[in-house]
Amino acid sequence: MPHTASPGRPTALVIGAGAAGLLAASVLAEFADVTVIERDTLPAGPEDRRGVPQARHAHLVWSGGVRAFEELLPGFVDSVVARGGRLVHIMGDMVSRAPNEVWFRRFGGTHHRNLVCSRNLLDHVLRERVLGDPRITVHEDSAAERLEGGAGRVTGVGARIGTATRTLAADLVVDASGRGSRAPAWLRDLGLPPVTERQVDAGVAYATRAFRAPGTTAGGFPLVNVQANPAKAPGQGGIILPVEDGRWIVTLSGTRGGEPTKDADAFTGFALNLGDPVIGELIKDAEPLGEVVTTRSTANRRRYYEKAKDWPDGFVVLGDAVAGYNPVYGHGLTVAAQCALALRDVLASAPGGLTAPGTARRVQRAAARPVSGAWDLAVGQDASYPGAGDTAPKAVERFLTRFVDRAVETAARSPRALGALLDVMSLEKPATRLFSRDMLLPMLFGAKEPHLQGPPLSEADRKAAAVTGE
Q: Fewest Cβ atoms nearer than 10 Å: which of 14, 182, 199, 363?
């Protein structure tokens, strides 16, 4: 999709045409002529592609991400919904068991909504919207191979464009290439010191299979989520994600020693043997659509670029290239959108725009805020699993984990506390929101409702899925 560059206008280059890269490109187009470099051939429709192997697993966008998507691309969410996506009320349209095995009541009074659809549909609508911008050029089947410039400023990239090797100059280079980012090595090649990294790997494996929505459930069945309990290794969980075209995406997970496999005959049995059998009961008579797909690339890994003593002008790293999270928490897409908002806000307020000295460092630090919120939530759970990291969980992480468990117990029974919890879990507000009156008063003086003893599936839900009650 070539276009003619505007004389005198800055130039920006984005590595990667995934969600983080496309959202960054949409922001940069307001300030510069943008080139996107993508390894894959991009599909014309909502189809699988090699560079996003995890796309077949369950994905969602938390309400903090829904807001960010809409702020970046007004009307985007409506476009996804018009093609079969759903805005799912949390917890009203959900049947959810927390990691501490507490079932949430289906309170309907909060504003929080998750955007639920297949990852392929979301990516298709995003490509259609962003790459239709005439200020953006995309080079498919191409790859960035090195940074040009020096330790003080990046001036572009050396790249393979199709079969040709070229040097592409740019005033700003954004690495949004995901978990496989080569930025640490590229920065070392420029003479910069190594960037601090941390990995917390609970050893989670995922297995996913699509099913035809059983019975009459294709028209709005609740999302069903049984989360793994870190206190009972191996942790096993699963989710039913009702998506477009009358399908259920069912993703099962397990940590070391309790992983699901590709064995189609074992899939439903694994679901029946989770901490609660509700997912297995719902799918045992459903029609499978295709085979089981698996993945093990689930470690939480963070690179602390914002803490680097020296940072070159003209270079920014965003999205999963900064931090990748265990997908069970569903925060990757939300963080990608919030990082793009951070990019926009810094560029909009920077004297001299994206070419000004120090702008890239300010973007990197601003992007670290949403990254940190998702990281603390994920690591607070996963660090408890045996063998998850070389170092024990930090004191603040242990405290936050214990407090979140207590907050979940309270929110499961109190709509007021639930609102505070979802503000944090949805990445709308920082973790300090958990220490507000909305949480502390119900926590200290008691919630209104008793704990549920099982999944809050209504009789109408069971009838629609042809599942009999006990």
A: 199
- Residues 130 and 72: their CA atoms lie apart, in Å, by 11
Tokens encoding 94: 């959900």
Strand positions, DSSP E, 201-325: 205-212, 223-226, 236-243, 247-254, 288-295, 300-303, 315-317, 323-324
CATH numbers and ranges of domains, the chain: 11-59+121-199+300-374 (3.50.50.60), 203-297 (3.30.70)
Tens-digit pLDDT profile for residues 396-439: 767 777 888 899 999 999 999 999 999 999 999 998 999 999 99
Give the whole-angstrom CA distance, residue 264 versus residue 228: 21
DSSP code string of 137-150 = EEE-S-EEEEEEE-
For residue 302, the tally of other CB atoms under 10 A from its CB is 21
pLDDT at 288 over 80: yes
Q: What residues does 254 pair with on adjacent strands?
A: 205, 236
Angle between the N-to-C axes of helices 415-425 and 359-382, in degrees from 0 to 180, rounded to the nearest 10: 130
DSSP string of 320-366, one letter each residue: GGTEE--GGG--HHHHHHHHHHHHHHHHHH-TTGGGSTTHHHHHHHH
The upper half-sphere exposure of residue 70, i.e. CA atoms within 13 Å in the direction of its Cβ, equals 15
Answer whether residue 109 shows pLDDT above 90. no
| The two three-digit tokens of residue 149, written as one number | 């410039």
> How confident is the prediction for the chain on average, in pLDDT?
92
Q: Measure the CA angle with vertex 329, ends 143 and 418; round to 5°.
A: 145
CA distances from 271 to 202, 277, 465 (A): 20, 6, 16
∠ Cα 402 406 409 (to 5°): 140
Beta-bridge partner residues of 114:
88
Q: Can you give the pTM of this predicted structure?
A: 0.93
